[in-house]
Amino acid sequence: MDDGLRTRFAAHFGGVPDGTGTGFGRVNIIGDHTDYNDGFVMPCILSHRTEVAIRARPDRLLNGLSGAFGQAEAQMDAATKGHWLAYAAGALAVTAEIGVPQVGIDLLVDSTVPEGAGVSSSAALGVALVRGLCAAFSIPAPPAQTVARLAQRIENDFIGLQCGIMDHMVSATGKARSAMHLDCRDLSYNLHSLPAGHVFLVIHSGSGRKLSEGIYNERVAECRAAAEAMGVASLRDAEAAQIADIDDKLVRQRAQHVLSENDRVNAAAQALASADVVTLGALITASHQSLATDYEVSSAPLDMLVKTTLSAGALGSRLTGAGFGGCIVCLAAADLADDIVAAAQEAVPGSWLLDSIAC
Ligand code: GLA
C-alpha cells in the first residue's frame, strides 16, 4: 500500500484502510468513437493514476474525501447522479454480484489524472473503486476484463454516460508504454511496443470538456440509428458499401467515420508492428480529419493544436478521447518534442504538455 495514501487516510479518518485500489488515466493513440460500436481502439495508459483507500463502515453512509472534489457524505441510496459519491454508490452496487457487501464506506480518493481533459479520469476512478472494494472486503482480484465491465457499468447505469469499454479496459490492464490494440466486441487484445526514438505527446488544449452534457450520448444514438438503417446489430458488422442505404446525411457521416476509423486502427496496429512511423502518423492525422468533419467532435483549439504540431514536425496529430475540448496526441521524433510543445503553446495560449510517452 502507498505510504502517502495510508498517511492521508489516517490523518482524515483515523486508523487504517481495509484495502486500496488503483486505476490509470489513458491516452487513445487512434480509434475514437468506435468502442461503443463494437469496434477497434488503440489506447495506452498514462503515468497519471487514481488511488483509493477504503474502510468498511457499520452503517450505510458513504463518507468520502477527494483531492479534486473535497469532503462529502451521503447515504448509499441518496448519492445520485451529478454528485461525485455516485461513483462510490455505483461501485458498491455493481460489485454486489462478485460478493462485495452492501455497507457504507470511508473513502479516500487521491488522483493525478486531470478532470475533464479527455484522459479518462472517471474510468480510472471506477477501476480503482472496483479494485479497492475487492481488496477491502477480501474478494479475490477479478480478471481485468471483469473489473473493466463492472467499472463501465458504474458510468452507464449510475452516471448516465453511455460510454464504451475502451477506457476501463486499458485502465484495468495497466501495461505501461504499450499500445493496446483492443477488439471492443470480445475484449481480446495485442500489446504493441511504441516506436523507438519517438514520443507520443499529450497536449491539453486548456479547454475542458464535459462528457455527460449530452453530445456524447447523442452520437451513441446516431450510431444506433445508422446500424438500424443498414440492418446490422452494430456498426462493426456493416460494410462500407451499405452506408449508401442511410437516408439521413448526418447519420451517414457518423457511420462513415466509425467504419473508416476501424480500418485506420487495424492499419495502425500493422504500422506499429513494422515500426513504420510515417504510415502511423498519416493514419493518426486522417483520424483527426474524420473526427472533425464526419463526426463533428473537434473544437477550434483542438484543430489549431493539430495544425500547429504538424507544421512543427509531428508525424501525425489528432484529438484524443471523446473530443469537444480536452487533449490532442501527436507522434513525433523525440528530438523535436520540445519545439513542438513550444509551438503549440504559442499558437494556443493556455495549452500545456500533460504527458509524454516513449518506449
Ligand atoms: C470517452 C468514452 C470512451 C470512448 C471515447 C471516444 O472517453 O468514455 O468509451 O467512447 O470517449 O473514443
Structure description:
It is a single chain. With 359 residues, the protein is an alpha+beta fold. The chain has 2 domains: 3-190, Ribosomal Protein S5, domain 2 (2-Layer Sandwich), CATH 3.30.230; 194-358, GHMP kinase, C-terminal domain (Alpha-Beta Plaits), CATH 3.30.70.890. Helices cover 40% and strands 24% of the residues. It contains 10 helices and 11 strands. It has helices spanning 3-13, 85-95, 121-136, 144-159, 166-173, 215-230, 249-273, 277-293, 300-311, 337-347; strands at 19-30, 40-56, 61-66, 70-75, 105-111, 178-183, 189-193, 198-204, 316-320, 327-333, 352-358. Strands 1, 2, 3, 4, 5, 6 and 7 form a 7-stranded mixed β-sheet that branches. β9 and β10 (327-333) form a beta hairpin. α2 crosses α4 and α3 packs across α5. The mean pLDDT is 95. The structure holds alpha-D-galactopyranose.
Structural class label: alpha+beta
Cofactors and ligands present?
alpha-D-galactopyranose
Helix content, binned percent: 25-40%
Count of strand segments: 11
Q: Per DSSP, what share of the residues sits in E-state strands of 2 or more residues? A: 15-25%
- Ends distance: 27 Å
What is the CATH topology descriptor of the largest domain?
Ribosomal Protein S5, domain 2
CATH architecture of the largest domain: 2-Layer Sandwich
Largest sheet: 7 strands, mixed
Number of domains: 2
Shape: globular
Give the ordered list of helices and strands. HEEEEHEHHHEEEHHHHEEHE
Report the radius of gyration as a whole number of Å. 20 Å
Number of helices: 10
User: Which stretches are poorly predicted, pLDDT < 50 over at least 5 residues?
Assistant: none
Mean pLDDT: 95
Class of the largest domain, according to the CATH hierarchy?
Alpha Beta
